[in-house]
Amino acid sequence: MDYLFLVSVFLIGIFSLLSWAFMIWARYWPTVVCSFVHKNVVCRTINGKTVYLPKISYRYFYGGYEHGGTRDRLFGGRAFDKVGDAEIDESELHCYVCPLRPSFSYLRQDYRVVWGLLAVFVLSAFMFVGLRMINFY
Q1: Which of 11, 25, 40, 48 gives the lowest tally of CB atoms within 10 Å of its CB?
Q2: In angstroms, rounded to a whole number, what is the distance separating the alpha carbons of residues 124 and 118?
Q3: Is pLDDT of 29 > 90?
Q4: Alpha-carbon distance 60 to 36, whole Å?
């Protein structure tokens, strides 16, 4: 068995586990009230399908200092099928702020990514164990 493939599966599993743990930790970051500096929804056509992407910038105060952010989601943006889903409600604008680095923040949590990363970790763990067992026989 090629050990490079085995190491690649192991590293993918470790990366997904660490990313999953980071997302779980980020759910418990303190939230602060934010205000928009700029807010827009961009329309793109990808493979003949129209999607809508939120483009934002916002300001918030944390630890006595003013900070700015542009992240809608923790690991980047998400494309929406409807323009209304891409818009962000201003009445409840709170952002999650990293307590170790207050200049890092995001607005919305994406629960689908958490389960996806966990699934990748479990799959890679099974693949790693299976490939190791094949190696012994």
Answers
A1: 48
A2: 10
A3: yes
A4: 9
Nearest Cα to Cα of residue 86 among 41, 21, 37: 41
Alpha carbons within 13 angstroms on the beta-carbon side of residue 58 total: 27
Distance CA 110, CA 33 (A): 19
SS3 35: strand
**pLDDT, tens digit (0-9, with 9 covering 90-100), for 121-135:** 778 877 777 767 676
Beta strands 105-106; 49-62: pairing state: unpaired
Condensed to tens digits (0 to 9), the pLDDT of residues 64-77 reads 999 999 988 887 77
In the chain, the amino acid numbered 86 is A
* CA distance linking residue 114 with residue 45, whole number of Å: 27
In eight-state DSSP terms, residue 37 is E
94 beta partners: 33
Distance between CA atoms of residues 37 and 8, nearest Å: 42
Strand order across the beta sheet in which 49-62 lies: 65-69, 49-62, 31-46, 94-97, 105-106
Phi, psi of 104 (to 5 degrees): -100, 120
